[in-house]
Design brief:
The protein is an alpha/beta fold and 371 residues long. The protein contains eight helices and 15 strands. The chain binds zinc ion (2 copies).
Length: 371
């Protein structure tokens, strides 16, 4: 009988760092504050460095466990998929096979990469407007996301040659980390916050924290594909964003909120009218990561204060995050306030050590994989 994939730890990136370093800071903070130093759920055992977020595949996505190359995705109610051959791929997987999507209604679609089975698998959001459509984050980019959008019918193709006759489509990166930015090169129109525009333009795989293993990609997108080949490709942004900018889709507006802390150019997109927040990695229902090379705790605290203000002002009812499932205002408030309460000196010390080690590991890895 098929089993739902076992929950994975969110920090697939350098898990050993979190196991051996993260627990120290959390335990110290717990002593200081008299409660769990962790940010999400105090019911988790103290021995766990971080709580286990709900990393099971989104509701209904069932995965058969098996040997690495034989896992099969079945019974996915998101969208019907073409059957996959049981034998190893003899040709490249199609975009239709690689992605799955689900409609949330009101012109919003939730897209995922089916065979990237990792805590780093990012949510991809398609938001349709009356005059322009927006893709928020693009995943790894191992198969063509634009091709999927058109061939699955999520976006209308007029049938005209090439791109003629298609409505404008803008790809917005909530930040440049590899799990969100890898597919940006497939789009003609690309927007990113100005703090990370240069890194994207030069394909800086240190700042994109590129970290991908063969074991996370449970079906190779093409014969002979290996994770070590993966790089975030350099992309020249066509639109540089800053706080307060408004992306006009016609019948809906997305306001850019610069929310640094996780990375220096992290943004949220806020649909004020519908009280929906696309939060990227600024906040999701799991342990927030503030130990990467361009993370900054003081910025993250300010960002969380801003999130709390949004909740207090009644401006957010639904959060569509960069990872895991969607959640509401109450959860947003808890996640943000818990981060602020844990961001004391103990946390800063342990995070400093983790950031140093992570930076070293990323330097080594990305020099090794440089072309
Ligand atoms: Zn990130
Ligand atoms: Zn991410």
């Amino acid at each position: 009988m098929p089993r739902v994939s076992a929950p994975l730890q969110r920090p697939a990136l350098l898990p050993w760092l979190l196991r051996y370093c993260g627990s120290l800071g959390c335990s110290l903070c717990a002593l200081r504050t008299g409660r769990s130093g962790d940010s999400v759920d105090a019911s988790y055992p103290r021995s766990l460095p971080h709580p286990r977020p709900s990393l099971a595949p989104p509701p209904g996505l069932r995965v058969v466990r098996g040997s690495l190359r034989q896992r099969r995705v079945r019974d996915c109610p998101w969208e019907a998929h073409p059957p996959l051959p049981a034998a190893p791929l003899l040709s490249s997987m199609s975009a239709l096979e690689w992605y799955a999507h689900k409609s949330l209604g009101d012109g919003i679609f939730w897209i995922q990469e089916r065979f990237y089975e990792s805590g780093n698998r990012a949510n991809i959001w398609l938001v349709r407007g009356s005059e322009q459509d927006v893709v928020i984050d693009t995943g790894l980019g191992l198969r063509s996301l634009p091709e999927y959008l058109y061939s699955s019918g999520l976006l209308q193709d007029s049938g005209a040659k090439e791109d003629a006759g298609r409505r404008p489509l803008l790809a917005v990166a909530t930040h440049v980390h590899f799990d969100h930015s890898g597919g940006l090169y497939q789009f003609d129109q690309v927007a990113v916050h100005r703090a990370e525009a240069e890194a994207l333009a030069r394909g800086d795989n240190f700042e994109t924290v590129t970290w991908l293993s063969d074991s996370e990609v449970v079906r190779a997108p093409s014969p002979g594909w290996r994770a070590r080949q993966f790089r975030v490709q350099a992309v020249q942004p066509t639109l540089i964003l800053q706080d307060g900018d408004v992306i006009n889709l016609g019948d809906r507006q997305l306001t850019v909120m610069h929310m640094p802390g996780h990375s220096r150019g992290s943004i949220c997109l806020h649909d004020k009218d519908r009280k929906v927040l696309f939060s990227g990695d600024v906040v999701y229902d799991g342990s927030l990561i503030d130990w990467l090379p361009y993370s900054r705790i003081s910025d993250y605290v300010g960002t969380c204060e801003r999130l709390i203000e949004l909740v207090d002002s009644g401006l957010v009812e639904k959060v569509l995050p960069g990872h895991f499932n969607t959640f509401g205002a109450e959860r947003l408030f808890r996640l943000a306030s818990n981060y602020i309460s844990k961001a004391g000196i103990c946390h800063k010390v342990s995070t400093f050590a983790m950031r140093s080690l992570a930076s070293l590991a990323l330097r080594v890895t990305n020099s090794r994989t440089s072309p």
